[in-house]
Design a protein that fits this description.
Strand order of the largest sheet: 5-6-7-8
Helix content: 55-70%
Radius of gyration: 38 Å
Order of helices and strands: HEEEEHHHHEEEEEEEHEEHHHH
Number of helices: 10
Structural class: alpha+beta
Strand content: 5-15%
Shape: rod-shaped
């Protein structure tokens, strides 16, 4: 070991400590960068030199810039994010459904049904009154229109969900292309023996964004590329190649999610999606809203059948009989007041026999249907049946909100744990900065000392 060895040792120490300061500065600069994992410089003593007195150290060397990261936590965050995306999308959709059944404004279906029955009750007090008959037709038309409006509102939510699904599928395809680009950059970088820390952070962030939209499975190959699959194992990203998702309408006109392979073959994966926002939207669209639509149809059908059965057995002021009060399809969207009755209120069958203009027996029978158990196998009234629909919608939102709040806490807990391991601490980085700065100054002093030693020797010549 000579003076030149000391100079070389000091020079290497300067470079290594400078790298440490650079890594620390990069950490500080990215303290608020989403998905960033702090980095640290791994150092070790350099290869010792063999001398007459034995091996002598030759200084320090920088081995690598390590990314402080636990892969298991990344997988866990993605899994929890998938569930959070599902809960959030489901909750948001159900909150819109709840608005359809909102009775607080006084214009809901329950209120309109009550006015319909009240109009029949008023008719019983004056069965031949033109005002009462006109009001009954108006209230009945309002009932039919409210049925149709509620049904259309639910269908609109379904169409809006379809639009969200289409936009999300496009976003998934965009993220897949980003994943391919990052895979390629990581593979190229690490083929040179370096670690692509920043690219890996970006890729993990893309994986998290993907998992928020759809349930994914992923694994990393020996080259550093990640393969991502969806559904029942359909490959979305494979190294530097990506496949696409698409949508196409099913028999009911609602959008199915499909996977398209490299040959252009299409596979429907709607039923294989188990998490993510897509799952939340699909559940709301195909289960919750579909159930409410069916219940509305059942209510409209049974009410229409019950009223028509009694009304057809009665007689109008003109002696006519066998007239249905409601016509059209026996559905929420199809029910309407008989146009003949709407144009001629004398056809309203309030009496139970011909030539009985003052008789209200049939009108009383129809008014009594309000409290008759006509639904659910003759165990529930029309009003109680609709109240159960309103309660169902409210409870579903309450339950979905509870699930969402719980899942939010789960994600927050896991992300906080990740931050405790991979996050940047300003205090810790400040300490590291001072440590590297002092080491840099000491290395500079070592070089200065060696230089003075060299000058001393040269002055002796």
């Amino acid at each position: 070991m000579d003076i030149f060895g000391v100079l070389n040792m000091g020079s290497k120490a300067l470079m290594v400590q400078q790298k440490g300061i650079y890594v620390t500065g990069n950490n500080i600069a990215n303290v608020n960068t989403p998905g960033y994992s702090r980095q640290r410089l791994n150092m070790s003593s350099d290869v010792p030199l063999n001398t007459g007195i034995g091996p002598v150290g030759s200084g320090v060397t920088a081995n690598e810039i390590e990314r402080v990261y636990q892969r298991f936590l990344g997988v866990q965050i993605n899994n929890e994010t998938q569930s959070l995306g599902q809960r959030e999308a489901h909750k948001d959709a159900l909150e819109r459904v709840e608005v359809v059944f909102n009775e607080s404004g006084g214009y809901g279906l329950n209120h309109v049904m009550s006015e319909f029955w009240n109009a029949w009750q008023d008719l019983t007090n004056n069965p031949s009154g033109p005002v009462e008959r006109t009001v009954l037709v108006a209230k009945s038309e309002m009932l039919a229109a409210t049925f149709s409006k509620s049904y259309e509102d639910l269908q609109k939510i379904q169409r809006d969900i379809d639009s969200s699904i289409e936009v999300s599928v496009e976003e998934i395809n965009r993220l897949s292309e980003n994943m391919v680009d990052l895979n390629q950059k990581i593979i190229q970088t690490e083929l040179g023996g370096h670690t692509a820390n920043d690219y890996r952070d970006q890729r993990d962030l893309v994986l998290k964004e993907l998992s928020e939209l759809i349930d994914i499975g992923s694994f990393e190959d020996a080259n550093g590329g990640v393969t991502v699959s969806v559904g029942s194992g359909q490959v979305l990203v494979e190294g530097t190649r990506s496949y696409k998702l698409s949508t196409q309408p099913d028999v009911s006109g609602l959008q199915d999610v499909t996977w398209v392979d490299s040959s252009g073959n299409t596979v429907t994966i709607t039923n294989d999606i188990s998490k993510g926002k897509l799952k939340g939207w699909l559940d709301a669209r195909d289960l919750d809203i579909d159930r409410h639509l069916n219940n509305l149809d059942t209510l409209a059908h049974d009410l229409m059948e019950a009223v028509n059965t009694v009304h057809a057995s009665g007689y109008g002021l003109d002696g006519s009989t066998l007239n249905n009060f409601f016509t059209g399809a026996a559905t929420a969207a199809g029910i309407e007041v008989n146009p003949l009755i709407a144009n001629d209120t004398n056809l309203i069958a309030a009496a139970n026999g011909p030539d009985k203009p003052g008789d209200s027996s049939n009108a009383i029978a129809i008014a009594n249907l309000q409290e008759a158990p006509m639904m659910n196998g003759n165990t529930t009234t029309f009003g109680a049946y609709y109240d159960s629909m309103v309660s169902d919608a409210g409870f579903a939102v309450q339950q979905a909100t509870s699930y969402y709040d719980h899942q939010s806490q789960m994600v927050l807990q896991v992300e906080n744990y990740r931050e405790s391991i991979s996050g940047v601490s300003i205090d810790e980085e400040t300490v590291n900065l001072i440590k590297y700065q002092n080491a840099y100054q000491a290395a500079a002093k070592l070089i200065n000392t060696a230089d003075e030693m060299m000058e001393t020797i040269l002055s002796m010549i």
